[in-house]
Amino acid sequence: MNETMLAVLGFATIIMIIVLLLRNVTVPALAFAGVSTVTSVILVATGTFTVEEMGEFIASGVAGVHSTAALFIFSVLFFGIMTDVGMFDRIINALMKKVGSNVVGVALMTCIIAMIGHLDGGGASTFLITIPAMLPVYKRLNMRPTTLLLICVTAMGVMNLLPWGGPTMRSATVLGIDPNELWRQLLPMQVVGVVIALATAVFWGFVEKKRGAGAETAPQGIVKAEEYDALEEKTEDAAENNLARPKLFAFNLILTLAVIVCLVFVKVPSYYIFMVGCVIALLVNYPGAKLQNKIIKSHSGPALMMASTILAAGVFLGVLEETEIMNHMANVLATFIPQSMGRFLPLIIGVLSVPLTLLFCTDSYFFGLLPVLISIGNQFGVNPAHTAIAMVVCRNCATFISPVVPATFLGVGLAGVEIKDHIKASFFWIWGVSIVCLISGILLGVIHF
C-alpha cells in the first residue's frame, strides 16, 4: 500500500472514530479498539505489515499511555477517599462563604487555578488539581461541568506555551534552536492569550449566571447565614456516617496539598505519587483490610471505565503513529496548499490548526507536519520560526479538546462529561480564541509575511 493510500486509510480511521463518538453509537473504548483493529486487519491483509509488526505497534502505543491509565485509577481513588472523608465539603463551604452566589467569581477562580496548576506543563496534573477542587462548587451553584472544562482547557492552552511545554520544545527541536529563544519570540502572543483566558472565564461566568446558575442563593452574591448554618449542619450530619472523618480534616488537607506539591515539583511518575497518597489516606482514615476493600470497590467503576478508554486509545495511537500513517497524512495535507499562497503559510496553518489538532497527536503534528510545511515555506522565503509559532500557539489552544491527546480523557472523566459533549461545547470557542491569538501575533509583528 503506497503512502497516499495509507494516508486515506488514516483519515478514514479517524473520521469513523469521531462519527461513532459524536453519534453516541458506542463507548469510546470500544470505538478506539474496534476501529483500530479493522485498520490493522486491512494493513495485514494488504501485505503492508505483518501480524507480528502490528502487534509490536499496538504494544508500543499502549506502553505510551499506560502511565496515564494508572494515573487515572489512583487519582480517582485518592480523590474519592478525600470525598468520602468529607474534606471537600469543608472546603466547599469555605469557598461558598467567600464567593456566595458569585458565579463569575467561581469561573475566574477556575481559570487562575488552572493557570497556576499548569506551570509544570503537565495536562494531567492540571486537570487533577483543578477539576476535583472546583467541580463540587460548580454542582452546588448549578454551573455546567462543560463550562468548567472549557475554562480549564483555555487556560491550559495558553500556559502550555512555556519553554518547557511539550509543543514549544518539539517545535524548537525541529527548528534547531533553544526553546527559550522560541518562547521569547512568541511571548507577546502568550500575554494576549492569558488576557483572553481570563476574559473567557468572566464571559462564561456571566453566561452561566444568565441561565440561572447560583439563583438558589440570596441575590447580589450574598448567601444567607441560615443557609450556611444548614450547610454546616449537613456536614456535621455527614460526620455521623461510617466514612466521614471530620477530626482528620487537617491531616487530609495537608496530605492533599502535599500530593499536589509533589505533582508539580517531585520528578517521579505522577501515578506513583497518587499510589503513595492512597496508601497513606487508607491506612490513616480506614484502617483494616475489610473497610479498605470496601472503599476501593466503591470507586472502581469510574476508574475502570476511563482506564479502559485510555488503554484503547493507546491501541489507536500505536496503529496510526508506529505505522507512520500520521506522517503520511501530514504530507498529503501539505500538498493541498497552493504554491501561490506559500508566503501566507503561517496564516493558513494558524487558521487550520484547531481542526487539525483533532486529527494529529502532538508528535505527528510537530515532527511530521511542521518539517514539511517549513520546507514548503522556504521556497517562498517564509521564516521557519513564524510557521512554527503559528502552529504552536494556535494548536496549543485546542490541545485538551483533542481525542488523540490522552490527558483529554482524564479531564472529561474527572468532570463526568462525555468527550463528544466536551468537543461540542468547546470547539468553536477555542477556534475563535486561536484565531484572535494569531491576529494578535500579526498585529504585534511576531508573525509577518
TrEMBL record:
Cellular component, GO, one term: plasma membrane
Transmembrane segments: 6-22, 29-51, 57-79, 99-117, 123-141, 148-166, 186-207, 248-266, 272-289, 301-320, 340-360, 365-382, 388-415, 427-447
Subcellular location: Membrane
A Pfam family it matches: CitMHS
Major location (coarse): membrane
GO MF annotations in UniProt: citrate transmembrane transporter activity; gluconate transmembrane transporter activity
Membrane topology note: Multi-pass membrane protein
Domain Citrate transporter-like, first and last residues per copy: 25-393
InterPro entries: Cit_transptr-like_dom, Citrate_transporter, Glcn_transporter
Protein keywords: Membrane, Transmembrane, Transmembrane helix, Transport
Keyword Cell wall biogenesis/degradation: no
Protein name as it appears in the record: Citrate transporter
Organism field: [Ruminococcus] torques
Underlying gene: citN_2
